[in-house]
Design a protein that fits this description.
Length: 132
């Protein structure tokens, strides 16, 4: 990001804040389609791997371990939306981080510049006017 004025940065950060407030239910992780055995002994899937049943799971990392939650077929679309929503929130938060960081940096830069200008000004002024 190039150097933007503080008001532009603030506008952009406020836009992210508003977008964050218009959220819905969200969940971290990925929705993954898997194949699994149903567990019934007389089902074809017990013998034939290609006859395994399609199922959806929500996978996520918890303390470096992969957590897997089975998602019922009639919830797949809904959970997919939750996953998308969490990605949107994460993206907005990352953008907010970048903007906030830039606001902090530009503020530090601005106050240093003011300090430098004051010092330069003081050095060029005659002693008598410095006291006034
Ligand atoms: Zn089966």
């Amino acid at each position: 990001m190039q150097n933007l004025s503080k008001s532009v940065l603030k506008q952009r950060a406020d836009a992210r804040r508003r977008a964050l407030s218009k959220g819905s239910i969200s969940v971290s992780g990925s929705l993954v389609r898997t194949l699994r055995r149903c567990g019934r002994e007389n089902c074809r899937c017990a013998q034939d791997p290609s006859a395994r049943h399609s199922a959806h799971v929500l996978t996520s990392k918890v303390k470096k371990k992969t957590k897997v939650v089975y998602v019922p077929v009639d919830m797949v679309k809904e959970v997919g939306n939750w996953v998308q929503e969490r990605r949107r929130i994460k993206r907005l938060l990352a953008e907010m981080d970048a903007l906030a960081e830039q606001m902090i940096r530009s503020h530090v830069g601005a106050s240093r510049a003011v300090g430098r200008n004051r010092a330069r000004l003081a050095a060029t002024l005659p002693t008598s006017s410095r006291q006034a």
